[in-house]
Design goal:
By secondary structure, the protein is α+β, with helices and mostly antiparallel strands. It folds into 3 domains: 8-101, Ubiquitin-like (UB roll) (Roll); 123-203, no CATH class; 208-247, no CATH class. Helices cover 35% and strands 13% of the residues. It is built from 11 helices and 7 strands. The strands form 2 sheets. It has a 5-stranded mixed sheet, covered by helices on one side. Strands 1-4 form a two-stranded antiparallel sheet. Strand 5 and strand 6 (83-87) form a beta hairpin. Helix 4 packs antiparallel against helix 5. It is flat. The protein binds iron/sulfur cluster (2 copies) and FE2/S2 (inorganic) cluster. The site of FE2/S2 (inorganic) cluster has 12 residues, from loops.
């Protein structure tokens, strides 16, 4: 995760903020941003509510669709003791929600050359020895906005099961919410990324179709088709995608493209 990615700044001309004692309209709710009260339309995501209130994201916002993991947010609902953790672009605001953006999650990443690394059973433990400190509290799993069994993939890593660690963590978007809360200081998402890279490079069978396609792309076989695709309406592109040929289905192996 990059330093400063969760910072946002206030616009020079912010919307006029109503006083806390003013009544809410039927479709409004009250949220608190950095302790300040804002009335925002119900149904907005945290990200849109912040923007509605006059804030402009300069970092901590990427895809706006739950994929890039840039917008991790902590919140508390008034009178609830528990903190909430979620993605600002996905979580819908609730009445009396207190919001803060996180500065960033400073996760130290192991250095390796994937071409030279030894994909042995102990490699994940060697690269990230802190995984041995896991106390099985399951806090990481409960923090994950992707509903990944995060604790399980850490346990698979400790056991040296690269394949399962990669498989369980497949939907990780590297938001860092698990790492932020882990009492053992584990950087789950970096470790899981290494497991997936190792599986892709050393464990799964090579995809014949993919190798052929890369060769054909290098020979510029698809230049004309790419120009056609760029001009195609989204609806037609989606249809083409759904109808695509999947190698693994055809050939019964795991090498699909
Ligand atoms: S495993 Fe961790 S970094 Fe990955 S999506 Fe879940 S909370 Fe975010
Ligand atoms: S939060 Fe950390 S210590 Fe707790 S289960 Fe997850 S990896 Fe283990
Ligand atoms: S902006 Fe990409 S996950 Fe929220």
């Amino acid at each position: 995760m990059t330093e400063g990615k969760q910072v946002f700044v206030e616009k020079k001309k912010v919307k006029k903020i109503k006083g806390k004692d003013e009544k809410l309209k039927a479709d409004e709710i009250e949220v608190f941003i950095m302790g300040k009260s804002y009335k925002v339309p119900a149904g907005l995501t945290i990200m849109k509510a912040l923007e509605y209130a006059g804030y402009r994201f300069i970092r901590g916002c990427g895809c706006r669709a739950g994929f890039c993991g840039a917008c991790s947010t902590v919140y508390r609902i008034e009178d609830e003791q528990k903190l909430g953790f979620d993605l600002a672009c996905q979580k819908v605001v609730e009445n009396n929600m207190y919001l803060v953006q996180l500065p960033f999650v400073p996760g130290v990443k192991a250095e390796y050359d994937i071409e030279k690394i030894d994909p042995s059973d102990s490699i994940l433990l060697e690269m990230y020895p802190e995984i041995a400190r896991c106390v099985s509290c399951n806090t990481c799993t409960k923090s994950c906005p992707q509903d990944i069994d995060t604790m399980k993939y850490i346990q698979m890593a400790v056991r040296g099961d690269i394949e399962r660690c990669a498989e369980i963590s497949f939907d990780c978007i590297q938001c860092g919410l698990c790492a932020m809360r882990c009492p053992a200081d584990i950087k789950h998402y970096h470790l899981a990324q290494l497991a997936r890279r190792l599986r892709g490079k050393y464990i799964d069978p090579r995809s014949k179709n993919l190798a052929n396609r890369v060769k054909e792309i290098d020979q510029r076989k698809y230049d004309e088709e790419i120009v056609k695709l760029i001009k195609m309406p989204n609806k037609d592109i989606k249809e083409l995608y759904v109808k695509r040929k999947i190698e693994a289905e055809d050939e019964g192996d795991l090498g699909g493209d």
